[in-house]
Specification:
Elements (H helix, E strand, L loop, with lengths): L1 H11 L4 H8 L3 H9 L6 H10 L4 H5 L12 H53 L7 E7 L2 E7 L7 H22 L3
Helix pairs in contact: 2-3, 4-6, 6-7
Length: 181
């Protein structure tokens, strides 16, 4: 029944299998298998398919919405529940993608903030650090203050690890936010 509905609705909209497949980001053979009844779309794809064919999930499954208050046959009740379930799953997937996109944005912002101090610290370390016993002068409210700087600054491993963690989280967030279930 679903296979017949997909084929009928696709033809009614004047779409070829290839055009429908491109809109859904699947290959033409997938649409062909749905129409032949060899496979069925998953819950998220069922919602996208219904949107693409401009019908509700219930109508796509073969149970048009009725306005009557008469009791529904078990098949219609099952289709209604399946429609609600697929809508909930699609909503959960959307929330999950938004979460990972937010993680990617936050981690990317953290990486951008950590990059300049890490680059400066590495540059100082690679150029030989500060000369031993150099004196720096800073101004204060009561006059200049001299500061003696001795030894070499340690490479800021914590800063570099935080930067690396932000980069890894950014990549992970981007990958998981674009993943199709």
């Amino acid at each position: 029944m679903l296979s017949e509905n997909i084929k009928t609705l696709r033809k009614a909209r004047g779409l070829s299998q290839q055009e429908l497949a491109e809109r859904l980001h699947v290959v033409r053979q997938t649409v062909s298998k749905w129409e032949q009844g060899l496979s069925v779309p998953d819950a998220a794809m069922l919602v996208q398919l219904a949107e693409c064919l401009e019908v509700s999930v219930e109508e796509l499954l073969g149970t048009p919405k009725s306005d009557s208050t008469a009791p529904k046959p078990p098949e219609e009740l099952l289709a209604d529940k399946l429609g609600q379930l697929t809508a909930q799953l699609a909503q959960q997937n959307t929330r999950r993608r938004r979460f990972w996109k937010g993680v990617a944005i936050a981690a990317g912002a953290g990486a951008v903030c950590l990059l300049p101090p890490a680059a400066i610290a590495v540059w100082i370390r690679l150029t030989g650090g500060f000369p031993a016993g150099s004196i720096g002068v800073i101004g204060g409210a009561d006059g200049p203050t001299e500061i003696l700087i001795t030894g070499e600054p340690a490479l800021p491993w914590r800063l570099l690890l935080a930067l690396g963690g932000c980069i890894v989280l950014t990549v992970l967030g981007l990958v998981l936010s674009r993943r199709q279930d």
